Amino acid sequence: MNERVVNRTVDVAVIGGGIIGLGIAWAVAHSGRTVVVIDPDPAGGATYAAAGMLAAVSELHYQEEVLLELMLASSALYPAFIESLGPEHHLTGYQRTHTMTVGADSADRQALADLRGVQLANGLAVDPLTIRAARVLEPLLSPHVSGAFMVEQDHQVDPRRLAERIQLALATLAKSRRWGHDALIRVNAMGLLHDDSADASSRVTGVALADGGTVSAAEVVVANGLAAAMLNGLPERLTMPLRPVYGDILRLRVPAHLRPLLTCTLRGLVHGVPVYLVPRSDGTVVIGATQREDGSTAVSAGGVYQLLRDAQVLLPAVRELELIEVTARARPGTPDNAPLLGRVSRTGRETPGSDIPGLIIATGFFRHGVLLTPVAAHYCLQLIEGSADQRWERFRPHRFSATRPSASVSLQGVVSS
Amino acid sequence: METEPLTITDSLVIDGVQLNSRLIMGTGGAPSLEGLGAALHASGTELTTVAMRRHSVTTAGSLFDLLVDRSIRVLPNTAGCFTAREAVLTAQLAREALETDWIKLEVIADEHTLLPDAVELLDATEQLVARGFKVFAYTNDDPVLALRLEHLGAVAVMPLGAPIGTGLGILNPHNIELIVSRAGVPVVLDAGIGTASDAALAMELGCDAVLLATAVTRAQNPALMGEAFKHAVIAGRLASQAGRIPKRELALASSTMNGRPDL
């Protein structure tokens, strides 16, 4: 056997060191438990690309009100989550700046106004602005946009810096509390270990690592995004329909004479195509993001072109910026755009007390991983402590696993109501 | 006198394939895969077109899996191609990946109008037919061009009602009627549909089927709109077969006074 192989024992093992896995690990560690995060390249996936909009309100899509509740809960948890990271929490780039949404042409304005109807019906605040008022707030906004709205509740964070702060905080805690091991294992997880190695529905007792080592843990959290479905030892009845939805995203530097380019996040619809610009305090701006299901991990030239074309329609000064980075990453998408979050039933059915002990799934956060990190962390800690918020049971990971129900929607109810 | 309902026996046949629904659906613009699945189900469609340049066939859990699960036939398309060459390459990719000769041919002139480029379209049709493809040609509402495409070997011609995604409806019903009246292959009204009545009109004008995406996928409730289109296409088809009354300038009582007692 390889002499470097190490077998560790912790309270909680988290597979996956993206923003979700790190967030969960931090909440667990903060509660006094020992934890390891298993990831060969922490924060190198979707977290590395993400713009970090905390946009529960402006991200609302028709028929996704269920997800809205989760997003709003997470938004509300954000300040406390950030502050828990200690005195240097401001280094996460968390800013309570606002978000302005703009429509380029009159159909775009109409689409935003229609969506506002649903936002208002859900008790959200979206305030119409005149173009003149919008341009007083953001003087570089194009005079040719057709409509603008202000969403004061949608803020931002810098996901790369947030992930870095969490890793530092975890390392500090591991040292000060004398865990005797690092909080991070830079290796791939191969699969789950079970009480009964012949029964993938028995209690989960740890994680097998690619280097031959193991981690023994009372609880294992599966938070490795798209790779989650590829782990060995997953319960047989659990199918996780995760698919890669690629996004291209740009980072640009604003020349000194144009600063500030923007004081708030700008989201727009340009002839029906969404685009956003997120200004950072370091003088850079993030422009995103495409959604591609073409299977290509490379940056798409057409995607970059589309983003720059649409961004400069809203903000002509985009032409003057320095393009410093183009990135493409895959988001872990699910059929209903909502995460796979919670414990897994042994039977594949909702029978009380049938959950597999020691196993929690937290993946499939799609476009919303950064926003949903605090609620995922909070909820996973609740699950570990045995007193979980029942509202989030609707996101249980095996909701797509049972024999596929007829997908017909109950239209009669809709028509007659 | 009882007769069989028309819809049971009135299926559409293209290239030997029988389709019981005359509604062909596109897939672009859907907010979620689950929402798209529900909308396709509600629409009753049996044929759905997918942009080969935007969707990977090999990705598990993708759109293609959804269509296979629901036994919906796939009509690959060349959306996003600006030259005949790109369209032919994309069609070949589709044939290898999906093992079908069917291709919905889109060759777009520019991204502002998304209107077909007639010259490239003819070139691509000629090349694809020569390579054994069954070409469903997305075309302008031009009766001359539609006939040329048929003569080149297209198995269906698909004139637009209005530019893609505009929802403006059928801007030139006369041209659509003219295309239908001269066509020897199925005519599918493609693009521009905004709401159910547009699809009903297309069928009343004599089209064999209607293809639409945005009107459903970007509706606030896609499944409900899908159901609406299902009924609209059936209604329009039935009306086209039923023989409508002539339009008159003045009223004509539906029950005449003949034979009534004069009290």
UniProtKB/TrEMBL annotation, chain A:
Keywords: Membrane, Oxidoreductase, Thiamine biosynthesis, Transmembrane, Transmembrane helix
Transmembrane segments: 12-29
Pathway: Cofactor biosynthesis; thiamine diphosphate biosynthesis
Gene Ontology annotations of biological process type: thiamine biosynthetic process; thiamine diphosphate biosynthetic process
An annotated Gene Ontology molecular function: flavin adenine dinucleotide binding
Reaction catalyzed: glycine + O2 + H2O = glyoxylate + H2O2 + NH4(+)
Species the sequence originates in: Cryobacterium levicorallinum
InterPro entries: FAD-dep_OxRdtase, FAD/NAD-bd_sf, Gly_oxidase_ThiO
Span of domain FAD dependent oxidoreductase: 11-379
Enzyme class, first EC level, given as a word: oxidoreductase
Protein name: glycine oxidase
From TrEMBL, chain B:
Catalytic residue positions: 104 (schiff-base intermediate with dxp)
Catalytic activity entry: [ThiS sulfur-carrier protein]-C-terminal-Gly-aminoethanethioate + 2-iminoacetate + 1-deoxy-D-xylulose 5-phosphate = [ThiS sulfur-carrier protein]-C-terminal Gly-Gly + 2-[(2R,5Z)-2-carboxy-4-methylthiazol-5(2H)-ylidene]ethyl phosphate + 2 H2O + H(+)
Annotated ranges, domain Thiazole synthase ThiG: 14-255
Record-linked InterPro entries: Aldolase_TIM, Thiazole_synthase_ThiG, ThiG
Superkingdom, natural source: Bacteria
Name of the top EC class for this enzyme: transferase
Pathway where it operates: Cofactor biosynthesis; thiamine diphosphate biosynthesis
Pfam families linked: ThiG (PF05690)
List of residues binding 1-deoxy-D-xylulose 5-phosphate: 165, 191-192, 213-214
Keywords recorded for this protein, A-Z: Cytoplasm, Schiff base, Thiamine biosynthesis, Transferase
E.C. number(s) listed in UniProt: 2.8.1.10
Subcellular location: Cytoplasm
Function: Catalyzes the rearrangement of 1-deoxy-D-xylulose 5-phosphate (DXP) to produce the thiazole phosphate moiety of thiamine. Sulfur is provided by the thiocarboxylate moiety of the carrier protein ThiS. In vitro, sulfur can be provided by H(2)S.
Assembly and interaction partners: Homotetramer. Forms heterodimers with either ThiH or ThiS.
Family from the record: Belongs to the ThiG family.
UniProt-recorded name of the protein: Thiazole synthase
